[in-house]
Amino acid sequence: MKEELLIEKLNNYGKSDMYPFHMPGHKRNTGDLGNPFAIDITEIEGFDNLHHPKEIILECEKRAARLFGSDKSFFLVNGSTCGILTAISAATKPGDKIIVGRNAHQSVFHAAVLRRLDVRYVYPEILEEGIQGEISVKNIKRCLEENPDAKAVVITSPTYEGIISNIEEIAKEAHKRNMPLIVDEAHGAHFCISEEFLPSAVEMGADIVVNSLHKTLPCFTQTAILHLKSEYVSEKGIRRFLDIYQTSSPSYIFMANMDKCISDLLENGKEQAESYMAMMREFRERVKNLRNVKVITKDNMDISKIVMSVKDTVITGPELNRMLHDNYHLEMEMVTPEYVLAMTSICDTPEGLDRLEKALLEIDNRLNRQNDKVEVTDHGYISQATASREKRAELHEAFEMEKRSVKIENAAGLISGDFVYLYPPDIPILVPGEVISKDFIRLVKDMERDGLYLKGLDYEQGLIEIALF
Ligand SMILES: Cc1ncc(COP(=O)(O)O)c(C=O)c1O
Questions:
Q1: Which end of the chain is more exposed for a tag (fewer CB within 10 A), N or C?
Q2: CB of residue 425 inside a 6 A radius of ligand 1
Q3: Predicted confidence band of residue 130 (pLDDT cuts 50, 70, 90)
């Protein structure tokens, strides 16, 4: 039998009727790039250099700074990941202390490993709907008071689910102590387009902000941007680390795509945002009376994220996802034990949202009948998974330490040697140096019984990696 090539698989998938409720934000239906090979060049004469921009790429970055309202914006071709590594590295010296919102992407923890940082955590609230909420100003303030020697504050806003924190107040608290605030706004690149969206972190006074353009704007996967507007971190510092973390062969296809997207948004972003917002408000209105599946809405939540909670129903997140996928051909962004997340952008179509509405109405109707017969149990997996953990050793020490795999049930009280994740967005719920508690082991076992698995554990052998201190 002939082996299928990746390109054939992608082309066949592109022809199918699967609708993308996931990133990238272009939703496979936008742009007129022509032949990508025709514009795929290297740093030839007249086309500048991303690492030392002086001509056309500098112009592109200035255009971006105008759209995002920063002093200086830097194109990234290795995703927000390289922007976050850069931001944290530029704001600290090896061995420094930083304050981090614990619901951070893995790149924040990786930066802490690389710079051998002493990390102090602030935990997000857990909302009654079972999703992670904001990082409160009160908790940041307390952590700053306990750690006046910290060198930077790093938080994620919006979260994967679209919840923003009070950046304005958090920035003021950090600045009172002469510290920069770094915001991982990977999911909020669209905020700058229009006042219809939530306020952007640059606008609210953050020092360094990182956006994944590919997540919520019509841009290729891997495209992202870092913004600087700070008294505490210099452009030189940022460039030094971008040279380390970014490829020396940046794609002109990516950069051209970012620039075109930014220029289009400067020209007609407000109108696009208006019609998109009208479509999303209408969608929310039509699904607000579902009895079982709850589409979560909050004042401090980005409207583009459709979080469908099945917390008080007889089905799990993976089961809802399977129905949406198999029966309605709707591809979701993320699945957790208790909810399913659909991502939308200005490139979504009314037809796509109609299909999701119809699917939700039918599934909800079916659940009406089942819920009457079966007792519903709330597992509280999300709150258990994001409970605070005892730190016994520094992240970087445990990361570098000799490791051994032990049976999960025998690991209580031992120190984790690796990261364990609840689901992809790569937010670790256990990091190297933290104690593996009895509660954590119980959570692993309960979830496994329900067919839910954590990334970073060896389920075949039933093993977890520990650091040998
Ligand atoms: C909150 C958050 N920050 C950072 C990243 C990394 O972004 P990128 O994939 O652009 O490197 C992600 C990726 O999912 C994310 O969810």
A1: N
A2: yes
A3: confident
